[in-house]
Amino acid sequence: MKTLMTDIKTQDGVCDAFVAYPDDGKQHPAVLFYMDAIGPRDYLYEMAKKIAERGYYVLQPNMFYRVKKAPYFDMKFPLGAADLPKLWEKLGPLFQSFTPEQGMKDAQVFLDFLGKQKEVRPGKIGITGYCMGAGLALRTAALFPDRVGAAAGFHGARLATDAPDSPHRLVGKIKAEVYVGHADKDQHNPPEQIELLEKALSQAGVRHETEVYPGAMHGYTMADLPAYNEAGAKRHWEKLFPLFERNLN
User: Fold this and answer.
1) 96 vs 82, 88, 220, CA distance in Å?
2) Residue 102 sits in which domain range?
3) What are phi and psi of 69, to 5 degrees?
4) Number of domains observed in the structure of the chain
5) Is the pTM above the cut of 0.70?
């Protein structure tokens, strides 16, 4: 396994990013890993490496690079419930500084970066996104339909709202196969939004599956957070890897 930190020049600065891929001298399909709002950290790096171990070149960019390099906090992970108020206080300015438009400007750069790596096999890429990354995954699949073969999102929020730029309004452009894993106890993603996203994907004829994970809260895949749900995290890997295998290999 080869891992490294790299800097990627963008229109707005320099994005620090984590890369992991098999150190076997071969080319592998690329996966773009969109972080959760808490950002790149040891646990997310472990998740990226787990994907890379399956035979993928994984790029995990710091989406808040315009404000701060990762890691953002000096807090010790894993966090407990008592740590969350302090975390949200620190996180607020970072999260509020970021827009979907910035994310899609960056997506173009990340796709171009992946296309230039000698370890990356030519062809469509896969995307996996968590929390805010789930929306970025859908947006990227929609804006770059000929470059994305598979897109997954887990415990996403605001995927189908009344907003003019809601991700669900873009899904008609998607050519990739899509999987979305919702949490049934997610205050940021109410049932009506889950239903609206499913309806939009179905009406658009997108190959997809949406699933609600029982007993799971927002952030259920993250073992370094109080919301972690072991069954949900396991289920997410069981759905993600076959999705990539069907569409990228």
Assistant:
1) 23, 11, 23
2) 2-248
3) -75, 155
4) 1
5) yes
With residue 138 as reference, give the H or E element that holds it: helix 132-143
> Pick from 3, 103, 83, 7: which is nearest to 47 by CA?
3
Q: Give the active site residues.
A: 131, 186, 218
Instruction: List the 30-34 sheet strands across, edge first.
Output: 2-10, 13-21, 57-61, 30-34, 125-130, 148-154, 177-185, 208-217
Give the length of the chain: 249
Say if CB 220 and CB 227 are below 8 A apart: yes
State pLDDT tens for residues 71-127. 998 889 999 999 989 988 988 888 889 999 999 999 999 999 999 999 999 999 999
The span from the CA of 244 to the CA of 224, in Å, is 25
Return the DSSP state at 71: P
Distances (CA, A) of 50 to 37, 46, 245: 20, 6, 14
Q: How far is CA 8 from the centre of its chain?
A: 18
CB 135 within 8 A of CB 158: yes
Pair 39, 64: CB distance under 8 Å: yes
CA atoms within 13 A on the CB side of 197: 28
Q: Give the integer Cα–Cα distance in Å for 131 and 91.
A: 14
- Residue 219 CA to residue 241 CA, distance in Å, equals 19
Going 116 to 65 to 73 to 97, the CA torsion angle's sign is: negative
Distance of CA 202 to the CA centre of its chain: 22
Closest to 249 measured CA to CA, from 104, 55, 2, 109? 55
Residue 203 CB partners (closer than 8 Å, separation 6+): none
